[in-house]
Every structure is written in C-alpha cells, then in structure tokens.
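Anyone? Bumping this.
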Amino acid sequence: MTTTTERPGVVEEAPPTTTIYRRPKSTEGFWGWVTTTDHKKIGIMYGYAAFFFFIVGGVEALLLRIHLASANSEFLTAGAYNALFSMHGATMIFLFVMPASAAFVNYLLPLMIGARDVAFPRLNALSWWAFLFGGIFMYSALFFGTGLAPTGVENVVGNLAEGGRPGGLNFLADMPDGGWFLYQPNAGPDFSPGTGIDFALLGIQILGVASLVAAVNFIVTIFNFRAKGMRLLRMPVFVWMTMVTQFLLLFSLPIIAIALFMATFDRNFGAMFFDATGGGDPILWQHLFWLFGHPEVYILVLPAMGMVSEVLPVFSRKPLFGYSAVIFAGAAIGFLGFGVWAHHMFATGISPVAQAAFGLSTMTIAIPTGIKIFNWMGTMWMGKLRFSTPLLFAIGFVAMFVIGGLSGVTHSIVPSDWQQTDTYYIVAHFHYVLFGGSVFGLFAGIYYWFPKISGRMLGEGLGKVHFWLMFIGFNLTFGPMHWLGLQGMVRRTWKYDPATGLEPWNIAVTVGAFIIALSIAVFIYNWWSSRRRGAPSGLDPWDARTVEWTVPNPTPVYNFATTPVITRLDDFWHRKYTTDDEGRAVRRPEADQMIADLEYDGRNPKTEIHLPAPSYFPLLLASGMPFIGWGIIWHTTTWGLGMVVLGVLLIVSGGIGWALEPLEEAHEEDHPHDEADEDEETHETEGASDVGRASESADTTEPVETS
Amino acid sequence: MTDLAHEGDVTAEDHHDEHESLGMDARKLGMWVFLSSEFLFFGALMTNYLLYSNRPGLADPYPGTIYDIPFTSVSSFVLLMSSLTMVLAHAALERDDQHQTRTWLFATAALGSIFLGGQVFEFYEFITHDGMTLTTSPVASAFYVLTGFHGLHVAIGILMLLSLWGIGHSQGALSDKRGFNVELVGLYWHFVDIIWIVIFTVVYLLSTS
Amino acid sequence: MSDGAHHTPSTSQYWKIALGLAVITALEVSLYYIDNALELGVLNAAMLIGLSLLKFVVVVGWFMHLRFEKPSLSRFFTGGFILAISLYAVVLGFMAAAVLRS
Amino acid sequence: MRRSRLSAVGGAGLLALILSGCQLADIDSPMTIFEPAGPFAQRLDDLFWMVFWIATVIFVLVQGGLIITMVLFRDRPGRREPKQIHGNAKLEVVWTIIPAVILAVVAVPTVSAVFDLTECADDAMTVEVIGHQWWFEYRYPEQGGFTTANTMVIPTGVEVCATMTSEDVLHNFWVPALNGKRYLVPGQTTVLRLQADTDGEYWGQCAEFCGLSHSLMRARVRSVPQPEFDAWAARQNEPAPVPEEGTPEYEGYQVYAQNCTQCHTVDFADNDAGISDNILEEPVFNGPDLTHFADEYRTTFAGSALPEADETYDEALKRWIENPPNVKPGSFMPDLGLTEDEIDAVIAWLKTNK
C-alpha cells in the first residue's frame, strides 16, 4: 500500500481507482497531521493548540496581576491593560476551554460510543482548522491591529494613538481592547475607531463557524453512530454532557453570529444598530450577547462535569450514583441555561418584572447543579477511594464548584447583585466556576485519559505536586477576589486608589497567580517526561468502566478491531466484575484473560478496516476564512478587496475539491448496494454514510492484508 | 417506491444493523440539525428589525413607508413556486427520471435567480429612489441585513442547485444516495423559502399596516 | 429518501399543494389591502400570522417531508423553532417595555 | 507519606493566610459595601447577609460531607470492594426538594426588594446624572438647573432620585454606601434611588468598562444637612466673579479665555471682558462647568481621580493641567502646552470660583 499522506495532492489527476486502502500507522510526518481526518489526531492537535493558548492567556493574566499588585501602578499602560484583560478573557474562553473540551470530545466521543470516527470526518478537520485560523486571526491583531482612542481624542495633544503613554508594553494596546463582551457602543466605530476590535469580532465569528460545524457533526455522531446496543441511556455521562453542550452551541452560536455581524456592519460599513445618537439601542447588544454568553458558560463547564462523572466512579470503584438523575440534571442545566441571560444585565435598568423573572430562573439552576454535586458525593460515599491524581482533580472540581455555585446563588438575589455586579466578586465567582470547575475537570481528564493517547502513565508524584500547587495557588488567587469585590474593587480597573486599602489583598492574589503558573510548569515537565519515560499503562490502567478502555493504548487508528456490542451501562466493568450476595464487586476469574485478549485482538484486526482518507481540502477551505476577515477590515483598500477575493477563492477551491474527492478510496467490491457505474463518477460526497460503511466493511470476511 | 428509493432505505438499515441510530441518513440528519439552528440566526435578525421598525424618532424613511407590496408579492410568489419545482425535481429523481430532475433543478435555480434579481432591484430602488441606505437608521440597517442575509442564503442555494444541475449534466445521473444530493439541497431550499414566508408577512405586510 | 417514501405526496398532489399555497399568498396580500381600507388592526395581524404559519407548516410538512419522517426529526426542528420564538419574544417584550418606560 | 506532608504544608499556608486575612480585613476601605449609609444600601446589605449565612451553612455541610467521605472511604489495606449501589430515588427527590424550598424562601424577599427599590418615591429630589468619558456630570433641575461635576451634593435624610443617561458609551454609577449600581445608557434614562442618613462623603466609581480611563472615572457623593444643602444650591446659582485686572487671578482668567472655552463653560457675573460664556455655539467637547470649580464640597476633579491619596490638591491640579492625558489616558482635555506661570495663574483663578 502506498502511504495515504501523498494521496490528497493527486486527487485532481486520474481518479483513484479501487485501491483497497488501509491507513498506515506511520502517519507521524508533517503532512500526516496536516491532512488527517482521524478524530484522534484532530483531538490531539486541538489539545496542544488549546494548551498553547492556555499558556498565552496565562501569561496575559500574569502581566495583569503584576500590574495590579500595586495601587496606581504604571507597569502597563491603560491601553495595554485593557487589551490584556480583553484578550485574556477571549483567549481562555474561545481559545482554551472550548477547544480543550473539543479535544476531549474529538478523541473520546467515538471511542466511548463504539464508533470508528465521527459522522463527518472531513467536517471535523474543517472545524479544527477553522478554530486554529480563527485563533491566529485574532492574535494577528498584535501585528496588524490598531487600538485608537475614541474619535476626536486620537489627535488630542498628549494622547498617544493607542491612548497610553510610551513604554508600559503599550504595543499590546493594538489588540482588541473592548473586553471579551465587546459592549456596544464602546466597542463600536466611534469609541474604538482602530481595527483592534474588528479582530475580535471576526475572529470569534470564525471560531463560531468551527464550533457550529463541530456541533452538527457531534450531534449526528451521537444520534447515528453508536455501537450496537449503546442505547441513549447506556451512554457514558461524558457523552451525554457533550450532547447537551453541542445543542447549546448549535442554538447559541447563531445568535452571537448575528450580534457579531451587526457590530461588524456598524464598524466597517456604517450601519447604525448600536449607534445611540441615531436611535440604536446598546442594550440590544447585551441581550444578544448574553443569549449566547450564558449558554456559553455551560458550554465551558458541562464537558468538565462529564469528565468528573467518568473519573469519580472509576476511583470510587462504584457506579455513578443516580446516573439518570445526573443526566437529567445536565440536560436541565442546558435547558435552563437559555433562560437566564438577563441576569448579566440586572444593573442595566431592565424592568423589575424582568429582574424578578430572571432572578428566579437563575435560582432554579442551583437545583440541578445541586443534584449533580450530591450525586457525585453519593458516588464516593461507601466507595473505596484511590487518591490518584485524576481523583484529586475531580474532587477539587467538586469542592471548588460548590463555592462557585454558592456565590452564583448570591447573584440571583437581584438587589444584592446590584452591589456585586461588575466587581471582583464576579471575577472570583466565575473563576471558581471556570477555573475551579472547567480547568480542574480538564486536568482530571488529562491525567485520566493520558494513557489512552500515549500508552504511558502521567507521573503520579509530580501529578500530586501539580494538584496541590494548583489547588493552593487557585484559592490564593481567586479566594481574596471575593473580598476585593465586596470592598469595592470594580472589574477591568487599570488603577485603584491606594486609599481604598485594596493593595495587600491584590498582592496576595498576585502571589497566588504565580503559584498557579508554577503548578503549570510542573505539569508541563510531567507531561514532557511521561511522554518519553512514563510507565507503560497496559490496556486498562485504572480498572475502568467504559468501552474506550477496551482497545489498546495508545488507541489504534481504527479504534476498534471489531465494533463492540454493548449490553449495559458501564459495559466494560460488568465484563470484568460481577457482584456477590451483598452486592459487592467481585472480579470475574476470566477478566484478566479477557483483557489480554482485548489487547491482542485490538492490535490484530481480523478484517480489513477502511477509514476515511486524509484530505487537504478542509485545511484549504478553512484557510480562506482569515483572509476574508482581513479583507473586511481593510475593505476600503484595493489590497483589502484582494484579500476578500483570495479568501473566497480559497474557500471555493477547497469546497470544489472537497465535493469531488471521495471520503475514502472507492472499493466497490465491498458494496453490493452501490450501483457501480454511478459511484465511479459521482463521488461528490459528504461522506457520512462512508464512515458507516467503513465499520460495516470491517465485519466482512476479507483477509488482512499486511504490507 | 422505486428501486432507487429502496436503495436509500437499505443504506440506512445497514447503519441500523451496525449502529444504534435514528435510522436515517446522517447527512440528512445533519442538515435538519443545522436548519434548526438557522431559526436562531434569522430569528435574531427579525428581532432586530421588529425592535426598531416601530421605534419613533429614527431618521426617515422607515422601510415600512417605502415598500412596494405588489412587487414584493410577485417575487415572494416566485420564491414560493420555486419550492414546487424543487419538490418536483426530487420527485422526478425518485422516479429515476434524470431528465426531468435536471429540468426542474434548473427551473428552481432560475426562479431563485428571479427572486434574487427582484431583491437587487428593490435594494436599488430603495437606495436611489427613496434614499434609504444601510447607514440611514437602525431600522434601515436591520432591513438590509435581514433581507441581505436571506438573499445570501438564496444565492448559496442557487449555486448548489446549479452545481447539481451541472453534475447531473456532465455525469448523466444524480443520486440521492451519497454526498451532495438533491434531497439535501431541497431541504435547504425549502427552508430558505419558509424563512421568506415569515419575512414577507412580518417584515413587509405587518410592519406597513 | 425518507423512510416513509411511499407515503410522500405524488406529483399531482404537489401541484395541488402549491396551488393552495398560492391561494393563501393571494389571500395574505388581499388582507393587506383590506386592512389598509378597514383598519382591522390586531385581527389583521392575527390572520396574517396565522396564514403565514399555515404556509410554513405546509412547506415543512409536505415539501420537506417532515410529516413523513420520524418524530425525532421534527423534535429537533420544532425545538429550534420554538426556542427561537420564545427567546426572541422575551427579548422584544422586555426591550419594548424599556422603551415605553423611558 | 509524601502526600500528607504536602497537605500539612498546604494547610499551614492556608491557616497563615486566613490569619493575615483577618488583619487585612480591618483596613478601612471607602468603597466597601458593608457600611451602608442609607435605607437602600441597607436593604441590599440585609439581603446579602441573609443569603451569605444560608450559603455558609450549605458550604460547611457540603464541604464537610466531602471531607468526611474522603476520610471514611479512602482505600486502606484490607478494605473490601464496595457495594455496587446505583442510586436512590428517595434521596434524589430529597436533594431536589430541599434546595428548591430554600430558594423559594430567599426568592420572596428578593422579589419584593426588586419592586420596592426600582421606582423613586414621588417626593424624591431629582438629580440628573450624565455620564461622559470619563467623568460624571450632575444637574439639579429643582434647584435652578445649575450644573456641577464629580461630587454630587445631596441633603441628608432625603431621597434623591438620580435620573441618569450617558452622552457617549455605557457607564455605571455606583456609590456602594448609598445603593447598588445602575447603568447610564446613551439615548435612554435609568433611575437610581440614593439616600444617605448620615452626613459624610461617600466614594463612588463607574463600574462598567467604558474605555481607556474607565478606572479613573470616579465619583463622590457629599451628604450635608438640608439647610446647608439649600445654601449650597443657592450659591451654585450665583455666577462666578470676574477677577480684577492686574491680579494673578486675572491673568489666569485670561489664560482660561484663550485656551479653555472650547470645552468648558463658566457663568460670569460681569461679562465686560468680552468673553462669552462660551465662545462657540456648540462646544467641541462637553467639559465640566467650572463656575464653582473650587466649591467647598468639590474636593476632587478629573473624574474624582485626583488628587491621589498622597498628594495635595494644588500639586494634583498642577499635574493635571500640565498634561491631562498623562494622568488620564485618552483624556479629551489636551496638553495645552501652558507655561508654569500660566498654570499657576489658572490655578489661582480657578480657586476663586467658589
């Protein structure tokens, strides 16, 4: 067999004929990664990119913290400060937590439901590349952006163009500086006349396309590609939470897309949507933004909740307590998440009826959240807790999320929220939810599933050092922020008066931030050394419960040598364990042999397995998006228009190539259902059925061809 | 019904053997899922328009005062009938009547183009004759962006119809079994039509009266 | 390629449905003119919205074959529709109330 | 072994933190929400403490339960495999209903407070608040319509209805001791009820990010007894004196006339000097009215960001006029390139505007 990595380049030449084509394992080369449609590789790329942006966002946070450690600090200019807090938020949300969740979903979703890939592998690659180009586009503001002060001020003597002063990292002020929330009209054409904001608007738009495509893809995957017997109520909780998340994305992204378009039209084409002088209503932006923004919070935290729901049972050696209650609670959180957006706007002067209604709906979210927390505790209760690193992070998640949840309830007390909103109390609250929640959950997932991608264990000792450093640093950073907010420190504040007495607390916060940074350094070292020297994990290092652990580690390209048949929830566990009269778990005598067989069979498929072929076209198509973005920003110039043309050309050529390329090499002999004459020619496929076909053909009885 | 139709069923059932699934083509499911999210997209645009359409104190002209209802009624009717030709194309394909399929596909694209031409003409009239541009007022911005995004959807639909027509021509046959197919494009096309049904009523008929 | 392909309308039925849609459209436009003369107000709005919803349902149900699909599919679709309507109705309601107050 | 040592270190660290935190808590902060000075802020404070104590009880129960679980059920040698319990429907109902009941209980005072605090009382005194990048302007329509900036003077024990709007972007008016926050929305009007029951100066701040110098958009509210307020209001309606020729103040007045009138207004008693209240029909930018710049209650300027804690009023004023954008990035007030003498003269003149 030839290697797959060359193939996409030659697709416009003679159509490949009936090559029976098996994906080689040696696709480690550069082009192997660039052209891959394998959900695992895409997941890994998502993961590394997300981690890279985590570091970027973290460095931004550290700069902010150095600045805020002293009152009236001049370490950063106002422009640089505003750009840094805006980009810290946007980066952590759109470029770290969302893609990190996407990394896990990509890697694990097909494995957990017993599929060979997602429904649309090339759309999956498109999502990934669109995400990457969206991130690059957003940060290209650092090089191409301008962050001008309000109209009329830019020429005022004494104001630098960016509205800062020399030094103080003022060059950073060219990045988007309207906050991740981009409130209008401050982020509109009159008050942010530079191009910085446009990079945020269009960048998030591109990232939205990536997430929307992924949402459709994952929803179809979950509904149509579960292994036989994997009924909805046998799916792991992580899959359930993924499904809820994808529906939230599906329904919330179009809303933000419109809001971003409206702002883009305002800024670049003179539309009047948010221009108050022309009758535009700035509050409309907030409604649209938070209609997306609140579901977004659950988009960020639900996957982590799913991961914790996977980790806790394994390390408690008990099934998840109240499986259906946890799922129902997750769905309820997702559903209610659409009905609470205006609680971000209690101080905007919306009517008292609206305030009361949204206050009440916000309170109700506490109920399903509580159900989850109690069920997680119920899972550990009476268990046999092995305090491995994943469990530490999972318990850290639960403990910290309780704090974030409780401070969240204090916001639903509307009048009380009039004091808290826009202060560091809110900053503390959502970091307890998103860092104490999402990030701790993600690290639980990383330690737990690291063997799945590497075949090795992440170091336990360093892992525990990492956990405790992070746990202490986290609480030292964000705990005092509650107090800071209640003492009147407003958010997004470049300077605070020393007379407010806030400085000592801010010093503590900054120290905490550096402890978190240290913990991340420990993690990076741990990752780096464990990749090379970690203990081999074997097939089932954690005595796990779900089917992704029934295949060898690292996962073979085809995932399952034989597609599994699922007979119950936690199928793998029940194949290993039965219960005695008291209901205690007893390992079946044949379990070890079964695992050895799984290991052997997993590495030696009995049948030919057809997998989706690599493709250049998702990359090509996605690469057009940033060019259109740049073109819109400079649409008044000739070369700006040229950029638009180039972008459209890239998208169209990518689309045409995509439509004419078969998902996998044709192998008609496997397809008695196909009309041979037709299929030779009309490979204009979007190939959902092809993946289905891939697994179908796995069970045909062709001999293995080894090359 | 026909051999072709059964072929599709078999594919779906094959999935069913291997997977727990909804028992339908994944691409079709994906299209429906995508379309359901489009409601939120157009809904936001319409909200935008409705919010401003009756707000006093905006710069003249309000779109509601300059609509040419007879003209728009005709173009709405044209788009509505394009849904008929679309469904006839699909029905022809189910009968495996490739020639008629191509004819109806082309007719659909042509009707869509007439609608789009009407929209361009309407924009042109509004801008040159009535002096309402994107920058006139929030309600004018909302009108242009709403109908413009709908027009963009129509344009993308026309492109897809023409590619199907072209593929059918050059390769002699279309199928609903795989990839970029008549049924998917049809779903998309009808969706664009129902969005216009709502826009026509809510934006044109109701906001003038 | 719906599973209930044999239930989908025949070509002549499609023509009849389209004729019905055309009649409804004509009715809508004439309602518009009747309202201009008679000032029916809310009644006119209700009838217009009702008629357009009817058209909406007919196109989705018959032309898009949703009527003949599995119920799960219509749940996705109507889910998005209902979500959009309810969210935006709340936004419009609260924002209109804010304008009335100020 | 290693783990327990680590946790001991962590525990000691946390303890030290809590202890030092108690000391830090004694620092007086003028922006704290915990010292309500009027009925509205008091209402918010009561609600906060109600939910705080409920949350604290839940916090202790849940975290305590978590710790007990971790200690009791940790894996020890000889520990048997656990029973495979899948759940308990009764428990699910219980821990659904209990939070729902607690929330229903806190919902009642919440909703009633929302409705009570939204609309101003009919007999409240109106002050119009207008937000600018980056300072607050106040107008007193019921006291003759004069305009002031930065410090809002109100009578003690009287409800003030702040009727607010913005000239440019969203702002958010917040004086924690008097009430919560309310946005200033361009093109719209919002209201906020303010009342101080004791005399004093209360700190405030714009809480919504409003551009470059958002952090320097601060405010003060000065609450004085009603008679003093009335006297103050009467003074505010007086015009500013034109200084005598030949005095340093007169030179400052000339500097003002030549440099500042594009944005600032002063209502003069005697306009013989040929300076109109405002040279231009429309000011280029809307700067604060300087007629009573040195009024006894107006202890701050430049969006109440100056003087800073460690400098005198005069030092700060000089620093400000020398180069405003250096103090307040993005400031609409430019560096006018005044000489030191000119600045001194302007300051001398400004201080006559009492």
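Late reply, but here is one note on the structure posted above: Residues 109 and 162 of chain B are 7 Å apart (CA to CA).
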